[in-house]
Design a protein that fits this description.
- By secondary structure, this protein is α/β, with parallel strands linked by helices.
- It has 13 helices and 13 strands.
- The strands form 2 sheets. The chain has a 7-stranded parallel beta sheet, sandwiched between helices. Strands 10-9-8-11-12-13 form a 6-stranded parallel beta sheet, with helices on both faces.
């Protein structure tokens, strides 16, 4: 069946089981939650399952729009041809009627086809796009459309209504209690300002230099008598260690064991400063006051979607660019001055205090 160009609101009949493919990053999945909500609104009796990866799947815990999560562990139990084929067979036995390839990738299109679903919705890009039965045709030039709006535009082809742009990430009461207990055991009083700094990122080009984070943290500690909570992800111990060593003031360094523990700690902060990253989107979904540092990434498409968030970036004549092939050493990130980030943080703090 060739792919069709649909008009908005073309509700599909006899859809009782839906699979959404999103096996990429934490931010990618969070920015898909508004589109998942619109699917739930339009297919209220359908079972909605999300195909995720071990890294991003936990953000869907307690999400009322998602009934099930299937984990695809590319580098774990599903590694190798035999395990991969078995996974495809098990997915086909689920008998999904609709698969939404929300992640635009060759593999997503292939999985949608192998699932045997009658309806396969995706964007008409990448290889295996001809296997889609329903497709969004078009392109998104850089600097024009947010990822949340891209996902909503895709599912509106089979949904009525506009939907909401609000991302969903629900913390459980005990997760918040555990975060507060950790902070209390670390000597943090709740009548002081707690500023969380997460200096990590998925790639080198997104990371603001360590020494600048250290300078910013010292200034925040002095100016606002703030407690600095340095948070790190897997493989980032050296990163936070170097920042702490460069600081003149004290900082509490912590490595959350799970993405949900990280979210709970972020929710306790009065302000979060971070790079363009998954934790940035977590803080945005929780509506925590935040300053996000952007480098070569398309900030229009990926800025934190929260009224309490602001971004800092160094405008460059070479933007939009191909970040991983930078010929000038990622000056947009590496030469972003401390003063620019300081101004954004002080504005955020003082606006909140009014």
């Amino acid at each position: 069946m060739p792919s069709r160009v649909l008009q908005n609101g073309d509700i599909l009949p006899n859809v009782n089981k839906i699979l959404i493919i999103r096996v990429d990053g934490v931010g990618d999945l969070l920015n898909s939650t508004p589109a998942i909500s619109l699917l739930r609104e339009n297919y209220p009796s359908a079972e909605i399952t999300v195909l995720a990866r071990p890294l991003n799947a936990p953000v869907l815990i307690a999400n009322p729009d998602v009934d099930r999560v299937i984990i695809f562990a590319r580098d774990g139990e599903h590694r190798g041809i035999k395990a991969r084929l078995q996974f495809y067979r098990e997915l086909r036995r689920e008998r999904f009627q609709l698969v939404v390839a929300m992640q635009t990738a060759m593999w997503s299109h292939l999985v949608a086809f192998l699932s045997g679903a009658s309806y396969r919705l995706g964007r008409y890009q990448k290889r295996f796009r001809s296997t889609l039965t329903h497709a969004w045709h078009g392109k998104y030039p850089k600097g024009e459309t947010h990822e949340v709006d891209r996902n909503l535009e895709l599912v509106r082809l089979i949904c009525k209504g506009e939907g909401t742009r609000q991302m969903k990430f629900h913390l459980l009461p005990d997760e918040i209690d555990n975060a507060k207990a950790y902070l209390e055991s670390s000597g943090i009083r709740f009548d002081t300002s707690l500023i969380g700094i997460h200096p990590g990122g998925s790639s080198f080009d997104k990371r603001w230099p360590e020494e600048r984070y250290a300078e910013l943290a010292d200034r925040l500690a002095r100016q606002y008598n703030a407690t600095i909570l340095l948070l790190r992800g897997p493989g980032e111990a050296a990163l936070t260690h170097n920042i702490q060593q460069s600081m003149q003031s004290n900082a509490i360094v912590h490595a959350p064991e799970t993405i949900r523990e990280l979210g709970a700690l972020l929710s306790c902060c009065n302000l979060v400063v971070c790079n363009d990253s998954g934790p940035m989107h977590l803080a945005a979904a929780l509506d925590v006051p935040m300053v996000a540092i952007f480098g070569p990434t398309d900030h229009v498409a990926w800025h934190p979607l929260s009224e309490n968030a602001s971004i800092v970036r160094r405008d460059m004549p070479c933007w939009p660019c191909s970040a991983h092939k930078c010929k000038i050493g990622w000056e947009c990130t590496k030469k972003l001055p401390v003063e620019s980030v300081w101004d954004a943080t002080t504005t955020t703090i003082e606006t909140r205090e009014k």
